[in-house]
Design goal:
This protein has 70 residues and is an all-alpha fold. The protein is 60% helix and 0% strand. The chain has 4 helices and no strands. Helix 1 crosses helix 3 and helix 2 packs across helix 3. The chain is globular. It starts with 8 loop residues before the first helix and ends in a 7-residue tail after the last helix.
Amino acid sequence: EFRRVLFRSREKEVLAVLASGATNTAIAARMGISEKTVRNHVSALLNKLEASNRAHLVAIARDCGFSGSE
């Protein structure tokens, strides 16, 4: 069961691209931001969604409707 989580718009964008299995480098290039910024967003998402690792975060994203094709 998931709790209600508020995302910043960039976090939602990162989560959508992350759901496709993209690397931080690919996410940064696609979004026009630095890899460090991507890492910061991924870290925030891991905490907000209480994911144990990146694979768990992708699974949660897909369960929440992020298909990876956004």
